[in-house]
């Protein structure tokens, strides 16, 4: 029996093979990086609009092998 079942056009069963927890102090963990990425994008948007930039839509991708550090 899968751990998670997603029902849609096709039913998808997901088996969780391993789970790990970190204390959250490691800046390279995904949970920390997600917060840093959001902060970077919010600040970049503020600076862009303040400099007279137009409202546009962009997609961004971050390299997970180069974590953001303060």
Describe the structure.
The structure is a single chain. With 70 residues, this protein is α+β, with helices and mostly antiparallel strands. The protein is 30% helix and 9% strand. It is built from 1 helix and 2 strands, in the order E-E-H. The chain has one helix at 30-50, and strands at residues 4-6, 12-14. It has a two-stranded antiparallel ribbon with strand order 1-2. Strand 1 (4-6) and strand 2 form a beta hairpin. It is flat and about 55 Å long. The termini are far apart. The model has no long low-confidence stretch (mean pLDDT 88).
Give the secondary structure arrangement, pairings included:
Blueprint: E1 4-6, E2 12-14, H1 30-50
Antiparallel strand pairs: 1-2
A few lines on this structure:
With 70 residues, this protein is of the alpha+beta class. 30% of the residues lie in helices and 9% in strands.
Key terms:
single chain, 70 residues, alpha+beta, two-stranded antiparallel sheet, 1 helix, 2 strands, 30% helix, 9% strand
* Percent range for β-strand residues: 5-15%
Number of helical stretches of at least 4 residues: 1
Spell out the helices and strands N to C: EEH
Secondary-structure-based class equals alpha+beta
Helical coverage, percent range: 25-40%
> What is the CA-CA span between the terminal residues?
43 Å
Sheet of most strands: 2 strands, antiparallel
- Main sheet: strand order: 1-2
Q: Give the overall shape.
A: flat
| Uncertain parts | none
Count of DSSP E strands?
Answer: 2
The pLDDT mean sits at 88
Over all CA atoms, what is the radius of gyration? 18 Å
